[in-house]
Amino acid sequence: MHRLDTTCRLSTKQIDIIKYKIKRAVSLRLPALPENVEMMLFFQGRDAWTYSWRLLDQIDQNSQRPISVEVDVKLKKEFLQTQLRARYTFVCQVRLQPDVYEPKISMHEKAV
Prior knowledge:
Elements: E1 2-3, H1 12-27, H2 35-44, E2 49-55, E3 67-75, E4 87-95, E5 104-109
Antiparallel strand pairs: 1-2, 2-3, 3-4, 4-5
């Protein structure tokens, strides 16, 4: 596995957009925290989850193959008392498009 950074032959802009799109899609699948906690985090500009990114295969710029990215999402320690599942892992297939802002993303949760 490789890190999802500029050493994988993607620009910083592409990586940031991919991470943003995946994070937004993953957040829809994560359970909601109690409303008072969500509001506190919103006003503080924080998130209850940490994201770790891994590139599952080498990227070939000339290939039209999708990029495989594994995202490990963990609940921060300060929120473990909410009795939510603390860890999720998703495998995402990212297909780059001519428009850098619109990569196509499909994902599924990895079996635990």
